[in-house]
Here is the input.
Amino acid sequence: MKRTEIASVLKSGQVGAEITVKGWVRTRRGSKNVNFIALNDGSTIHNLQVVAEAELFGEDLIKNINTGTALGVTGTLVASAGSGQAVELNARTIEVIGLADPEKYPIQPKRHTLEFLREMAHLRPRTATFSAIFRIRHAMVYAIHSFFHERGFYNVHTPIITSSDAEGAGEMFRVTVLPAENAPLNEEGKVDFSQDFFGKPANLTVSGQLEGELFAMALAKIYTFGPTFRAENSNTSRHLAEFWMIEPEVAFSDLNDNMDLAEDFLKYLINYALDHCMDDLQFLSNRLTEEEKNKPVEQRSMELISKLRFVAENDFVRLPYSQAIEILINSKPNKKGKFQYPVTGYGTDLQSEHERYLVEQEFKKPVILTNYPKEIKAFYMRLDDNGKTVAAMDVLFPQIGEIIGGSQREERIEVLEARMDEMNIPKHEMEWYLDTRRFGGCPHAGFGLGFERLMLFVTGMGNIRDVIPFARTPKNCEF
Ligand code: 4AD
Ligand code: MG
Here is the structure.
């Protein structure tokens, strides 16, 4: 018989129907006469309760039905006597498809720590928590494409291997086929990349923006959605060496349009999760509430679903960097020396503790900070008329800090070239980029949303390693 998915059984299964389900055992409990098996097939957070009469199956079969075992069950749907589900499955035949030896299977029906499950990243999707996270992750991917498609944006695949360093940050992973030992040297005694695969140095991309800009100058509204790589040695709960980024780029658009787009985009995604992932969100919310029971009341975070609604329903604060600095200088934690990095004055680069102070203490809402000093931002951001600040914007979220970074771009070629000279960006390697300003350039703007930072916010998880299937962080590249 064809397999019916448990999601559809629980939604619209008819009492009396004869069905087959296939999935993995979450738990089995039972008495001498009857066993109850909670079966999950990934289609929903909810399990289907399978009732197996001992006399029908015998002890030998039943004792193999352990957590993690793959089963096929055929039987009749009956109204459930227990609470929590409308129907359950009275088993007529049970097929053990794949055994999970309880002596060896690491995932047991008890509470495992997230740290332990991180080491078991190949098995953790079998837990309720991680299956919920990864169903939501899929829903967010789908919603991102929907949002842009509905608004007439085109998706562009920008390169993953590149010879340009978009952020000018120099924290890139090199891509080479040269031998690590005895690499060929040139006359200056340096590695001779002319003998390398591409005939010059190449890296994994840190951002698709610069190539995205080229396409925005033709298709007008584009977005990229791809993996990005940063070799920064940041071992925090918000940094990955490999993460996914969404980067829209829009022609004939300025900083205000860009902020509107970013705010609409984030609200759309949060509303999508509320509309389509409620079962999983409810599960994660309960989990968080349970976890936070041990914390003092004032340290507990807002309940997950209320928090998502709150952000979706309220306007974000929009504030220039200069005003944020004023607020931070005069803030209690700064005066009392509570910040790890004291805010000394205009020009201070903001750390996540400052960003979170603004969002969580000062405004209690997401904040978009704009017009940062040019010294702490990338070369491509448009210089403001004061000559000091650039048309940058960072969107700051509770618990996360920076979730989006973006700007209006410098479209005036003389100004752009002067900025590149100031920042020692080799113009001769970027002629292709400068061409967009030489030929039919126009005001344009865009931003980058860190996909895993969005996932942290939507799931309420505390560590970015728990919202990506296989995390890559300093000294960690398993699987
Ligand atoms: O602020 P960033 O560096 O901006 C850019 O890369 C621009 N090119 C974007 C653009 O204007 N098109 O990065 C954008 C976002 C950050 O706000 C953050 O959410 C995320 O990417 N991000 C990271 N996420 C996880 N791990 C890291 N190491 C991250 N670095 C940045
Ligand atoms: Mg940034």
